[in-house]
């Protein structure tokens, strides 16, 4: 299963970025192969609609789960329409967020208005 995490730098030790749409990178971690891939977020500059475009990039990479501290309503709508589950994490290392998710310790994230 592929898990996406917005991160500040291209490292499993990177702190999770608190802003989904403006995250510089997205970590795509495959729980089956343990492979980590980092995607540049072209919308990181924070332009109008950044969250929706970032969400579509997650969908296009066949992700099943997103771990993020926050998420706007429009981004959440795009992800949910694609069947992607969304969980709340904190600004901790990405590898810790993934471990917490696989242990069942993360709550479902409710989108902000």
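Q: What amino acid sequence fits the structure above?
A:
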């Amino acid at each position: 299963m592929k898990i996406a995490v917005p991160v500040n730098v291209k490292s499993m030790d990177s702190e999770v970025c608190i802003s989904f749409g403006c995250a510089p990178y997205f970590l795509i971690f495959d729980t089956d192969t343990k492979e980590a891939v980092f995607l540049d977020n072209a919308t990181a500059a924070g332009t109008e609609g950044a969250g929706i475009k970032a969400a579509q990039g997650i969908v296009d990479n066949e992700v099943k789960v997103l771990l993020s501290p926050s998420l706007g309503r429009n981004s959440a709508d795009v992800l949910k329409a694609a069947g992607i589950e969304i969980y709340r994490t904190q600004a901790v290392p990405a590898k810790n967020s993934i471990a917490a998710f696989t242990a069942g310790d993360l709550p479902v994230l409710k989108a902000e208005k």
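Q: And what stands out in the fold?
A: The mean pLDDT is 93.
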